[in-house]
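User: I'll paste a sequence; please echo it back and then give the predicted structure.

Assistant: Echoing your sequence first, then the prediction.
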Amino acid sequence: MDEPPIPGPDDPLPELPGMETLPWPDVASTTGDAADAPAAAIRYRVTVSGLAELGLEDEFRGLSSLWLHRGEDTNLAQLTRRIAEDRDLADQLLRSVGHYGGGVRITTEPPAAGRPESQVRVAVEPGPLYRFADISILAPEDAVGPPDPARIVTRLLPVKVGDAVEAARVQSAETALPVRLADAGYPFPRISPPDIVIDHASRDATLTQRIDLGRRGSFGSIRIDDAVRGMDTKHVALLSRFKPGDRYSNAGREDLRRALVQTGLFGAVAIRPVEGAVQPDGTQTVDLEITSEPAPMRTIALSGGFSTGQGLRAEGSWSHRNFFPPEGGFTARAVAAQREQVAQLELRKRNFGQRDRQLLVSGGLTASQQFAFAAETLGISAALARETNIIWQKDWTWSIGAQALITSQRDRSAFGDPRRTFTVLAFPANVTWDQSDDLLNPSRGFRLTARLSPELTLRDRSNFNYVKAQFEATAYRPIGPLVVAGRFHIGSIVGASRGVIAPDRRFYAGGGGSVRGYVFQGVGPRNADNVPTGGNSLTELAVEGRYRFQALGQDLGVVAFIDAGEVSTGTTPTFDRLSLGAGIGARIYTGFGPVRIDIATPLNPRAGDPRLVFYVSIGQAF
């Protein structure tokens, strides 16, 4: 289709179809002040056809000069320029999806009765779809890499013979090719621009490109600036998943960059591959130069919550993430709540001797005033654990540790409300198999967790041993827009009767993370004064339906749930006295997890149970 040439700055404007009927002032007839009046304004509206079928109409409207200025006062020169720009724009969009040889016709119609604006019609004829008939990848004459790069490049290039000649796709493929070649072990390729020849007779195209892959790379040395104290090359090498001499990959380099960011010590990290020495086998060493910016090392955090029975809870902490370089964090934490007070110090060494392994040592004072007991405890604990996080969610995580506690406790369920002192030495361990799709808000998959804690207790010049074991399973399944989540949790204490075990080491149930509809410790056996006694075994079950949606510019959700639970004095969990609760909740999804608001009621309440229980916290119930 022949197109009129775009006029030069001194050429008269060409006549456009329908334009001769648009109003234009008669300059010769104007006199006085009227001679200085501007040309008559044109207002128009735009219709577009032929692009919606190709999925291009929204993109055209977003870039179109005609569409942008529709409804504005316009003169003839402006309108002509916009028509020429949009004709080129439509042609470029057609080529971007493989349509060549089509036509773009833009016509104008003057105002009509009942229509005060002019009409601009953009009619697009896509033309035939062109496809690649041949793709040739050749090495340049001075190539130092393999003489036949096609064997490697062809499988990495996302454009294949028979694909549509989409300009956008070809450009995207060229942009991604260096990264794909680096992942294949060639970090320094020389890539010439592709030569694409269109054959309008056969309606196909050929792509020819010369690529020198360069030498295959292997990881060499790592060099890092001194932006963060204590983060030397030795510790950076511990974070890498590769060793010197391993085949180079861009994925390995990016994984190391993300690992450095995950430490929380860096505000920004860049890793640049640098050509190193050529090895006797023809490969090339690739050294990594790391430049970074430190992040703020100190953090003050505040959080709060509320639940019926437990009341208000406020928690604050001060942290220094690099108190003992490298990655030795220190945290001072305090909790002020109606039924709990905590003052604790914590030392956490991340990536301790191995990536994703941490050493945690903590100690402090706690005071708790619960329905079943009152306790003041001085304790210290240490644990070695394999971490998981939102960047690298692990299939398997574990923790082993030791605790030493001296605690003075009042057992409110025992006759006379006696106070006793316990010395407890515990060796807790746990392992988790996580096959869920998200750490904070899973929608499919499952998690299995087993916990075991052998414990030695000294009380009143006598000692006794027992083992506390627990197993928990959660599962998530999407059904259309709904996610159905389930939880099963059992526990057992073997080796000691309930009455001799320290009250805060027994099993209890009820509350926002247990059986909703009941207050904390509200499920299980009680004495004659309706005080929870705790038990040697535990059973908890829950089913929850979660629906997520967008409203008022917010990411929101609603849930409905049924929970059940039981605490028994025997060591074997039973299912004959389950307490049932049901309710609904709201979720406000944020970058750090959902804010949870639940309201629930007991379905088979006992004397003293509230009719409604309200919970506010962060994170899903399970």
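Helices lie at 57-63, 65-68, 76-96, 150-156, 167-183, 233-239, 250-262. The CA atoms of residues 268 and 293 lie 5 Å apart.
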